C-alpha cells in the first residue's frame, strides 16, 4: 500500500498546475520533484569543459611519453638481442633480467600516471558537484521542490521537471570554469 501512496503523491506533484509566484516568473517549473542529468551537467558546464580539456591535454602528453618510452625500449631490446651471441649466457641472462625489471618498473610508473589522471578527473567532478550544490538548492527552493532526482533513474517524467540546462547556466554564472580565478579543481 505504501509504494502506491508514494507513487500517487509523486504523480500528483508532477501533474499539479503551476502555482503563481516568483518561480513561475523566473521560468522554474513548479514541482515537488525535479530531475537533472549530472553527467551532462558536468560535461556541458564551463568547469567540466575546462577539466576535460586539461585532462585530454595531459593524456596526450602521457601518450606521447609512452610512445617515446616504447621506442627507446624497443631499440634497447633490439641492441640486447644483437649482443646475445657476443655475451656469455649467464651475463646475458643478468642483462635480460635487468631489462625486464626496467620494463616492469616503467610500466608501473606510467600506469600510476594514468590512474592519477583518472583520479584527478573524479576529484574535479566531486568538487564541481559540491560547488554546484547551492545553485541546485536555490533552483529546488524556487520551484517548491523537495527533491532532485537523477533523470536516468526516473522511469517517466515531464520534460518541464528537468533543470539541467537551467542549472548549467546558473552554475556557469556563479563559478565560471573554476580555473585560476575560481580556484576549483586546480592543482
TrEMBL record:
The keyword Signal applies. Keywords: Signal. GO terms for biological process: protein stabilization. One of its GO terms (cellular component) is cytosol. One of its GO terms (molecular function) is unfolded protein binding. The keyword Signal applies. It comes from the Bacteria. Belongs to the Skp family. This is OmpH family outer membrane protein. It comes from Antarcticimicrobium sediminis. The lineage of its organism: Bacteria, Pseudomonadati, Pseudomonadota, Alphaproteobacteria, Rhodobacterales.
